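Ticket #4471: structure export looks truncated?
Reporter: QA, pipeline team
Priority: medium

Steps to reproduce: submit the single chain below to the structure queue and open the exported record.
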Amino acid sequence: WVMRWKKLTIALAAIVLAFYIQYMWHLRNLQSLRQLESERTALLDLATHQLGMPLATFKWWLEILRDKDGGKFCDKNGVCDEMQHGIDRMDMIIKSLHDANHLSKGTIDYRSESASLSRVIRESIDSLKSDLAKRNQTISFEDEGDVPPLHIDPKLIGGVISELIENAH
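Actual output as written to the record:
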């Protein structure tokens, strides 16, 4: 009887030890994942902040070029329009990185309101029409009408729609 008790005690201790080891391994993995997420977030914060400085410099120099000789320099060769397009695209990428970072942290500011999805789509299209026209591209949107307003964040949804259109063109 004593021998069985010892074997049972050893088996029970082995089971408890195995669960403890598995729990500690799982806890260590969670800590590693949290550390990795923290470092990723810090890197994205740093990248978006650091990229903003040269972008501001590019914007400033573009203004100087546009003012040079009453704008004749920019009108001659269209280089300023191309630079503006590049700056706008870079700005959108930085904002997308910033928003993605806030989304992954769960800190994105979502302001739901009753809004017309058709209106949001039209505003997004209108904001990009001049860029599309420069590339001899057009976009059309057919509204079926009679769609009730939705509870959405028009700014966030408009940004998504604009990004989709930008990617498509």
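Status: closed, not a bug. The export was complete when the record was re-opened. Leaving a note from the reviewer for reference: The longest helix spans residues 2-67.
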